[in-house]
Design a protein that fits this description.
- The protein is of the alpha/beta class and about 130 residues long.
- The protein is built from four helices and eight strands; from the N terminus they run βαβββαβαβββα.
Length: about 130
């Protein structure tokens, strides 16, 4: 088994895709007007409309109602990402901080309120963990 993606259900697909394109510097791959993917070398962030999920599982997802999942991106330089995101992100939850487990982390909210963590390993042990 291999973990491949996470899908965010939203009422504003274009708005959320635009945010993630700007935040990551990656161009989304669109399948339809209601579904796009931000693909990285390790995983994919899929962004879908409420209508897509309603076709197969009515009521299963509530857009902009996430209180338990954090979307995470491994980056080269957290402080550089922080400077870049200034003005793009309305809600910075935690400015760049080196965490006790060795990652430097920036925690923000996307336009739907989902938590997004941009992090980089800062200690030798953390760097070893992400060396592959």
């Amino acid at each position: 088994m291999d973990f491949i993606s996470i899908r965010v259900i939203t009422d504003g697909v274009a708005r959320l895709v635009e945010f993630y394109e700007k935040a990551t510097g990656l161009e989304a791959v669109w399948s339809t007007d209601e579904f796009a993917e931000i693909r990285t070398s390790r995983a994919t962030l899929a962004i879908s409309s409420r209508g897509n999920i309603e076709l197969t599982a009515p009521g299963a997802a509530r857009p902009a109602d996430n209180h338990s999942v954090i979307i995470e991106f491994l980056v080269e330089d957290v402080d550089q990402v922080y400077r870049y995101l200034t003005g793009l992100v309305a809600d910075v939850v935690k400015e760049p901080t080196t965490m006790p487990w060795g990652n430097r982390s920036l925690l923000v909210r996307d336009p739907d309120g989902n938590l997004v963590n941009f992090f980089a390993p800062a200690t030798p042990a953390a760097k070893e963990k992400f060396a592959h």
